[in-house]
Specification:
Blueprint lengths: L1 H22 L7 H15 L19 H4 L20 H8 L2 H10 L4 H15 L3 H12 L9 H11 L2 E6 L2 E7 L1 H24 L3 H8 L15 H18 L31 H21 L3 H19 L9 H11 L3 H16 L11 H22 L9 H8 L1 H11 L5 H4 L3 H37 L1
Antiparallel strand pairs: 1-2
Helix pairs in contact: 1-4, 6-7, 7-9, 8-12, 8-13, 11-20, 12-13, 13-14, 13-20, 14-15, 15-16, 15-20, 18-20
Length: 473
Amino acid sequence: MAASRMGGWMLPLAFGVTLLKCLLIPTYHSTDFEVHRNWLAITYSLPVSQWYYEVTSEWTLDYPPFFAWCCKNINRTKEPKEILEKPDFILAVLLLWNFGLLLIDHIHFQYNGFLFGLLLLSIARMFQGRHLESALLFAVLMNFKHIFLYVAPAYGIYLLRSYCFTKSKQDGSIQWRSFSFSRLFVLGLIVCSVFVASFGPFVAMGQLPQVLARLFPFKRGLCHAYWAPNFWALYNVVDKVLSVIAVKLKLLDPALFSKASMTGGLVQEFQHAVLPSVSPLATLICTLFSIMPAIFHLWLKPRGPRGFLQCLILCALGSFVFGWHVHEKAILIAILPLSLFAVENRKDAGIYLVLVTTGHFSLFPLLFTGPEMPIKICLMLLFTIYSFSALRALFRKEGTLLSWPESIYLSGLIPLQLICEIIYPLTPWQQRFPFIPLLLISVYCSLGTTYAWIRLYISVLQETLTDRKMKAQ
């Protein structure tokens, strides 16, 4: 019944979203428009053997092979109404009219909508117990965009634990009986076949090292040209503050003070002046430490598909908070799956509101020209107001969704926007320190994303303890 009601809403909602997107056609084109246009030219006009060697343009191909092929035979992914057993209108809006997707795909210009469609469809198949289909879809997804490696550990552990182990019920309790090598073989065959189809031609041409070098450019530096709101944004700011203090106290040679701009250029390496400089290995270790509790928890207490989705979100957030050269747009890998939980219980709804508001606001600097300011503000306000009002109405009998410190923090985004985009540009500091608005946004939003990650971890552990108490009773 709920699915049929949502189906009635889908057509007018999709029509309205389409009209809104049409209004955005004449707006600013980001560099990503030129990037993808150049990639199309590369893959259309050059033989496969030259795709990952072409350097005529600075916009070299650095996506996995599936994204590079012409995609005439790829069918549309199914609509989000299939994601949950009982979806409703609120979930449809949170997914279809997500402000971050609208901004990135249809203004900043990227291809994320259909990729997240594959992710959500893969999650749906996992909930339906169709493990092999889920694995196939996710393997295809990783060969479209390798950033989804962030959540690969959740897939690997859950499939190994819940699919490759056979189980039997004895005396009302589930006992893991034996490991099925045949299931592991079939699972591995499916996943490996996808990667062979994707990378096989480049292996045959002896180009795999070149492809991997393009996909994982560790020389690009710790942070993107625009800092993602994560732990390393806080780390960089602490280093900047300590550097200024050290220079004032004549403890540091001003010539050694790093002057890397946060706003200029494509990407760049950044050496810290006071704190230890961070290597790719260090970020990998931090990321592994951040996701290992979720991985072990999923292995020891699988708790079905819900436990898998919780682990997936925690892996996405852990990789975002501590990863190497993280793009600010990667926050959507956590926001969209978390939408599925936001309509299920009050705690997850509160976490979702903190993360989605902070994460979406952190995308504002991607649209930096004057004419886009009212567009991005109005669109985010519409989505945010709807999210708050709809979820509050959904859980009105269970209490408030946010604590007063959380409400105060989110309210601080309003003066922050006024300072960064209206007041500061009118000051004389704009010429000398043009990076200050980006720094303020990254640092302020990093507090929210890190807090949401920690709170979600606590929520998962509390949920497990509650389950244990209920079983004990």
